[in-house]
Amino acid sequence: MDTPAMLQLLKDPMGVPFFPVVFQALMVLTFTLHILFVNLALGTTCLAVIGRLKGGEAWERLAGGMAKAATASVSGAILLGVAPLLFVQVIYDPFWYASSNLSAAWAIGFIFILMAGYASLYLAREQKGDASSAFAGFSFTMFLLAGFIMHVLGFQLLQPEKWLGWYTSHGAAATAGTVLHDFSLPRFLHFIVPAFAATGALLMLYAWYFRARADMDQAYLAWAGRLGAKMAFHATALEAVTGFLWLLVLPRELRFHAHPLFLLGVVLGLGLLGYLYHAQRQEKDHHRFAWPAALGMFAVVLEMAAAREALRIRYLSRFGYSIADHRLNLDWGSTALFLGTFIPSLVVLAYILAVAYQSGRVAGRWEAGPRMRAWGKASIGILAAWIMIVVGLGITITLRNRGL
Ligand code: HEM
């Protein structure tokens, strides 16, 4: 059987419950958020190691803060990894499942690797000195390995013409799934190097955020802001190099160098690099550049995520595969439930973020104002209503299915 026919057979015959292009757009958006948190997780964990190794008051203090930021970033990365995982499984089902099965032991081991890294991060937070850097170093290694597994699964997926060869490489069907069959170092680096750019922007935001607090050491904040600006610039420059290396190893027939999204990425990336160069050259007040740098970085990563998807489309169109060809089996009920969960949850999430933002900006105890209290009550009401609707739906559907 040829590869295009095999791919059609592997597709879910039930089709998709909504327009595939909507899933694709949401996948790009949620992948952008996922990879930003991945980068923050890797960068903050690495700084927690370096800070403890370097020692001295400022570095020790930074290391403690980074270990705490790392635990929050990893949970963000996990939470925001689930969404693109679901979308990729819906519109690229033949590819994702085949790739995961080919390296199944690693796909399952991924969860335990992540858990080990995450647990060790909490130990790093509790310890001081060498013990802390050893635990954080272990976490960093585990996160890198987890990222590498994700990279391999995403890269094997693009090459269905090689699957049969990998599956039967030793003359018999290899069902153990213990082999990671292929990787692309420039591609992997292009997703890992920005860890230091994102963490640099985070440090600039950190300096900006705590400047408002009189009880904070302003000299330390200025140092952190400067360090952040330098890190963000140098990592972005290195990121541009890895991007061009990745382009060089892409199959020629894809002609990706001429793709409009690639070209736009180059323009935006170089624009960001120029801005960061300007920011890090300043003598002081690097916090002033924090927001434009962070927003610019978000825009570039979003564009790059779209370009990454455009590249996947080029890879897979070689086999006549297009997500638009999925059988459409419109299901308004599940779509309404999805939107009815997604949109109100933004209100609740924004409330939690607003509490975190406001409470950290005052020294000592923070008291919520009348508006925040009303928002809090509304959020609890939304959650209670959502639980009642979902439980009610579940009970109704179960009873109906049993003919009651
Ligand atoms: C610290 C932990 C993690 C790291 C370092 C990490 C890193 C990465 C990297 C580097 C990529 C890009 C790979 C490429 O395109 O070559 C990626 C993609 C992805 N990751 Fe993560 N990840 C982590 C956790 C997770 C978790 C917990 C999930 C799911 C629950 C997840 C789901 C995904 C998905 C769905 C993709 C995109 C796959 C695709 O579009 O082909 N990741 N991750």
Provide key terms for this protein.
single chain, globular, 14 helices, 3 domains, binds protoporphyrin IX containing FE, about 400 residues, mainly alpha
Nutshell version of this structure?
With 404 residues, the protein is mainly alpha-helical. It has helices at 3-10, 20-54, 57-91, 93-102, 104-126, 129-156, 160-167, 185-192, 194-210, 218-249, 260-281, 290-317, 332-360, 370-401.
Layout of strands and helices, then pairs:
Blueprint: H1 3-10, H2 20-54, H3 57-91, H4 93-102, H5 104-126, H6 129-156, H7 160-167, H8 185-192, H9 194-210, H10 218-249, H11 260-281, H12 290-317, H13 332-360, H14 370-401
Helix pairs in contact: 2-3, 2-6, 2-9, 2-12, 3-4, 3-5, 4-5, 4-6, 4-7, 5-6, 8-10, 9-10, 9-12, 10-11, 11-12, 13-14
The chain binds protoporphyrin IX containing FE.
Residues 31, 34, 38, 41, 74, 77-78, 81-82, 84-85, 88, 114, 143, 146-147, 150-151, 154-155, 157, 187, 191 line the site of protoporphyrin IX containing FE.
Number of domains: 3
Work out the strand percent.
Answer: under 5%
Please report the number of helical segments: 14
Work out the number of β strands: 0
- Helical fraction: over 70%
Low-confidence residue ranges: none
SS-based class: mainly alpha
Strand count, sense and closure of the main sheet?
Answer: none
Shape: globular
